[in-house]
Amino acid sequence: MTQKRLDKGTRWFSPRITSLLENISAARTAIIEAPSGFGKTTAGEYLWSEILSGLPDLAKSVRKVWHTCIDEAGPLLWRHFCDTVSKIDAPTGGRLAVLGLPDDDTFGDAAFTLEDIQCERETWFFLDDFHNIERAAGARVFSEFFRHRTETLRVVILTRQFGDKALRGHAGVVWIDFRDLALSAVETKSFFASRGVRVTKKQAESAREITGGCVQGLCLELDRYRQTGKFSPLEDEGAWREIMRATIWKGLTEFQRDFLLRVSPFERYTLKQAAFL
Fold first, then answer.
1. What angle do CA 132, 136, 139 make, to 5 degrees?
2. Residue 101 backbone phi and psi in degrees, to 5
């Protein structure tokens, strides 16, 4: 199998990862679960544009429905989700919208309604950033939906975390996590070569160790290497912070730094930071 590369290296997958994505073509439900930076969204786009669209038996009538679960207020997030479901099954989307964001009293009705979705046309339903709606509505709402037996519907979940761990190993389900998406040292060396940078085996191993094989981290390390001619010698705990500072923060103007701080979400902050923001 040849290595896949698109847009001069913008999207690159090793033969191993490409093979994992190819397995999804036969699944009813696929979960791609990994922290930010491991290429989940890119994998979903690649799955459709390069793998599925290249299958000879994929009829042109097959459609893709893509929904990104934006991190917003729960009721609004749910409404947008219902609007997308309506593109597949208008009555189901309408009933879910009427129910509103599920709570302890309505989650059962929402789960039953979603499980009963009808799909007359073969459809691939991609749910990106699924962790946002799972957190707002609860994993139990979607549990049976992801075990669906609708012949014409395939569901692909792209998420940082997936609550229903019992789904792993279920018939018709393919599960890919961060360990699968993390590049090995050999893959790291090939990835750098695809970006026009030749490195030694030792250098590739160093970059892989620093980033854990996370492709976004490797891109930052690659930028650092181009600037300094070496990879970060720091331990894992401090490497990311130093990479971000060297490759991004140092290149920003004072106005850009101020803007970035004001629009960035923080999980926690000091009183001084709050006053500044």
1. 85
2. -55, 120
> Residue 48 is which amino acid?
W
Residue with tokens 């299958």: 55
Task: Supply φ then ψ for residue 24, to 5 degrees.
Answer: -65, -25
Rounded Cα–Cα distance for residues 33 and 252 (Å) = 32
- Average pLDDT of 149-178? 90
| 123: β partners | 63, 153
Structure token digits, residue 117: 């979705």
Assign 168 a pLDDT band (cuts: 50, 70, 90): confident
| The overall pTM is greater than 0.70 | yes
The amino acid occupying position 165 is K
Distance CA(86)–CA(44), nearest Å, equals: 21
232: tokens are 């970060």
What's the helix, strand, coil split of the chain in %, to 5?
A: 55, 15, 35
DSSP labels, 102-121: --TTTHHHHHHHHHT---SS
Rounded Cα distance between 17 and 179, Å, is: 11
